[in-house]
Amino acid sequence: MQGAAGTRAGAPPLDEGARRVGEVILAVEGVSLSFGGVKALTNVSFDVREHEVRAIIGPNGAGKSSMLNVINGVYHPQEGKIRYLGREFRDMDSHEVAQSGIARTFQSLALFKGMTVLDNIMAGRNLKMRTNLLLQALRIGPALREELEHREAVERIIDFLEIQAYRKVPVGRLPYGLQKRVDLARALAMEPRMLLLDEPMAGMNMEEKQDMCRFILDVNDQFGTTIVLIEHDMGVVMDISDRVVVLDYGKKIGDGTPDEVRANKAVIDAYLGVSH
Amino acid sequence: MLYRENGQFKSTYASDQQMLPILQDRVFMMALLAFAFFVVPIVTSEYVFLSLLIPFLILTLAAIGLNILVGYCGQISIGHAAFMAVGAYAAYNLVLRVPQLNFLVVLVLSGLIAAAAGALFGIPSLRIKGLYLAVATLAAQFFMDWLFARVKWFTNYAHSGSVQTAPIELFGWTIESPAEKYLFLLAVLVLFTLVAKNLVRSHIGREWMAMRDMDVAAEVIGIRPVYAKLTAFAVSAFYCGVAGALWGFVYLGSWEPLAFNLNLSLNLLFMIIIGGMGSLLGSYLGAAFIVALPIILDQIPNWLGVPISTATSSHLASMIFGALIVFFLIVEPLGLARLWAIGKEKLRLWPFPH
Amino acid sequence: MRRHWPVLALGTALLIGLALPLATGAAPVGFYVEVLLGGLMTGVLYSLVALGFALIFKASGVFNFAQGAMVLFAALAVARIAEHVPLWAAILLGMVIMTALAWVIERLVLRPLVNQEGVALLMATLGVTYFLDGFGQTVWGSDIYKIELGIAKEPVMILPDVFQGGILVNKEDFVAAMVAALLVGGLVLFFQKTATGRALRAVADDHQAAQSIGIPLNRIWVIVWAVAGFVALVAGVIWGSQLGVQFSLAQVALKALPVVILGGFTSIAGAIVGGLIIGVGEKMAEVFLGPVLVKAFDLAGGGIENWFAYVLALLFLLVRPEGLFGEKHIDRV
What region, left, alpha or beta, does residue B278 occupy, with left being phi > 0 and alpha being psi -120 to 50 degrees? Predict the structure, then answer.
């Protein structure tokens, strides 16, 4: 199974414990979402197991980004619920979702254009920074220690994603591929348990895709982070994912391992544009 | 050639994150501070103190406050002079009713009261933004205008509605002469600038900037919008409250409620637009510009030998003002601070062109 | 129904406040109706100014802070020109001047800033306000000028039999209301029935889509600003004949901001309804609520009018940000 990411089956996992796919940590149950008259999602249900790489695929407009937005708390579905780590929710605010360990990247980069790369990633550490306003104002003792501690953590992520040279550059000036890496870095800075990636390889050339695949797999291997990703490149999806969900016109039309999904007639029809 | 970072390597995060990482910047800043504290008081005339430096220092403080809210946190406010009024009247009442308080304590307390008002009037920002928020802040402005004009307790039942203050006494030192006022204000401003710098480069500062740049993404990384916005309003109002107290006590001496009207609010806004939003240096530059402009405009007819009535010159000032606002917004929306930064970059390359 | 309770609560509170003076008998019915009518008349004038706001926002998404200054400028122009030529000619010339002004503003201010966000444009119109203010007073002078519309200024007593003592109504106010109604009617016809009007509505809906079907954006914007200028002219002439043309006109025009908030920024109907609500609310608050507050808190005089409109707008913003007739925003990520 060679492809953009290279083979997975042959290479020994870096961290045996982290790679082992575990229990279900996220369950989407009967979620329906509409905007005014437009139905984005209709009765979608699937689950995600810990430590796995789950791909969501489907033609354009299938509702994939909306699905991530629902999991993330950005959109609140009209029906259905999300079950995460035993908690049930439908209308949690996105910052509460973030606090419970879910991070995400965006398809159209949502970087903070007015800040440098370093500041953007440091912003991701925000959840862990707890000193109060007064101490920050005086920048003594605990506040200073905290800044330096988190700077170290961020530097490790910068090393991991190989963007050392661009630390102090305002993100707006970086080329697209690097901006995507910063987006990923910021999500990683949150030390999330589950990472939602929205088309992480969109607009990249072959080399950049290989790099990004490598990073994603490393994250999954080294930190044990569960990955849910939306991706259009079938080669990538087939190579790096453990299981796949297929959406079309807001409905689920396929769910299983990459091989199973590839052979599913409904999926093939959807991609070929066979009307139904 | 002079302005190079060659050889200045940083081996600890602490040294990398210091305020002025480049040696030449540190030297320049030390020299500037020395000049401001030791040379200026001796060589400057009373007129320059009273009409330029003193208002400049106080308005810079207020501009920093407004910049924190508008430039760093991205929440618009066109009624911010209201918080200066809160600070001024709070200080007046504290000095009047609790005379044994040290004036520095009065300043801090006035700031805190203004901060509370700021947080209160910042609540609309949790539901609305942009232009709608701008109009909501106007409500704060006009309400405060009315409050301090009508509720007689604030002005101690003065007939005319205006209040008088005595010169400040601090640890036995009476701050009366223009030079003394200047030094006091300079010390306060430097201190508050340091605090502001600390705030904007720590995590609350990043929260503010994240809310400004993309609030949806900020929420997604765990930033609580309520906390970020209300702290921005509160801190910003704190600065303006202290500035208002200083404006009343040190600069004006006595004032009526309309001293903190919409015009002042708009002036503050123009300061940070022209100076540079999201930049502490920009607050300084903008305040200097706005304070100096009317004076320069007044003097130009004299230099040219053409007599103009004061009414006409103030109309001309309005025109030039308005035109400059538009000009800056079109040509350099990041303000004078950006021009300064470009200048510094050219200096780094000097004498090479690129 | 659950979602609407804040709006309903606010509306009910306002209605109760409106009915209280009558219910408690604090004022004779005739007087109450007088105040009501006075508020409505003021409201009509606010609506006129707010119309200009709504028009420009509708067509170009720009929040024209300078609308007030435009009203003042137009009024000044007409007042001064009318000293030398008959009033109708002055008004025509004023129209020419306002159109030219619209063209200049579009060219010099709007076009270069078209890519920046709304707040930058708001600040730019603030700059235009200051400029127009100074420019107007430099060119036309800064005294108080009169505009003579040739209508009798004494109030007329009507319905002396129905209400005790009759009701005092100002003839000029009446004419103002008629003119405003005509203007609104004309504008509605313009927007619905003419090709230009349709183009304007298309632009208001979606700039890029309108461009892609060949609508010349820049020309449309000039037209919109010219229409807004015309509305400003009408407003300026009417206000000016009542109050005299002076700087405080611009301040008064700021009141139109709460009006568009109540009505919805993009709605012409909203500008009218909002203006009436604000006008009535303000007057009622000043006349009936004011003395109550003065007694209760030992205040130095009334002046509720100065902030009532804004606080009302603020409350509306919290319960119904899109205004009565505006469109709801959906932020998509």
Answer: left
Shortest Cα distance, chain B CAs vs residue C286, angstroms: 13
Beta-strand runs (E) in chain B? 163-164, 168-170, 173-175, 254-255
Q: Please tell me the pTM assigned to this model.
A: 0.86
Percent pLDDT > 70 in chain B is 96
pLDDT tens for A56-83 read 998 887 889 899 999 988 888 988 889 9
Number of CB pairs, chain B paired with chain C, less than 8 A apart: 137
| Calpha distance A180→A159 (Å, rounded) | 15
Can the peptide bond before residue B351 be classed as cis, meaning omega within 30 degrees of 0?
Answer: yes
Give residue A196's pLDDT. 94
Query: Count of CB atoms within 10 A of residue C117's CB?
Result: 9
| Strand extents, DSSP E, chain C | 155-158, 167-170
* Residues B79, B235 contacting (CB under 8 angstroms): no
Residue A104 with chain C: CB contacts under 8 Å: none
Contact status, residue B286 vs residue B63, Cβ threshold 8 Å: yes
Q: What DSSP string describes B267-282?
A: HHHHHHHHH-TT-HHH
Nearest-5° angle of CA A28, CA A29, CA A34? Answer: 90
**Residues of chain C found within 8 Å of residue A106, distances taken between Cβ atoms:** 333
Task: Find the CB nearest A127 among B199, B222, B231.
Answer: B222
Under the banding of pLDDT at 50, 70 and 90, the label for residue A5 is: very low
What are the Cα distances from residue C89, in Å, to C77, C96, C228? 12, 11, 20
Token digits for B130?
């942009």
Confidence bin at A275 (pLDDT 50/70/90): low
Structure tokens at B84: 């200066």
Conformation bin of residue B239: beta by default, left when phi > 0, alpha when psi is -120 to 50: alpha
Reported as type and span, the H/E element at residue B60 is helix B54-67
pLDDT in tens, B261-296: 888 998 899 899 889 888 899 999 999 999 988 888
DSSP B151: B
Contact C240, C250 (CB under 8 A): no
**Smallest CA–CA distance from B279 into chain A, residue:** A114
Angle subtended at Cα B287 by Cα B282 and Cα B289, rounded to the nearest 5 degrees: 95
The answer to whether A120 faces chain C, any CB pair under 8 Å, is no
Burial letters for A109-118: b for 16+ Cβ neighbours within 10 Å, e otherwise?
Answer: bbbbbbbbbb
Per CB-CB distance under 8 Å, the chain B contacts of C310 are: 135, 138-139, 142-143
What's the CA gap between C229 and C242, in Å, rounded? Answer: 20
The model's pLDDT over C97-111, given as tens digits with 9 standing for 90+, comes to 888 888 788 788 877
Give the closest residue to B32 by CA, choosing from B189, B198, B197.
B189
Q: Which amino acid does the sequence have at A180?
A: K
Q: How many residues does chain B have?
A: 354
Provide the 3-class DSSP secondary structure of residue B348.
Answer: helix
Q: Which residues of A touch B195 (CB under 8 A)?
A: 137-138
Q: What is the mean pLDDT of chain C?
A: 76
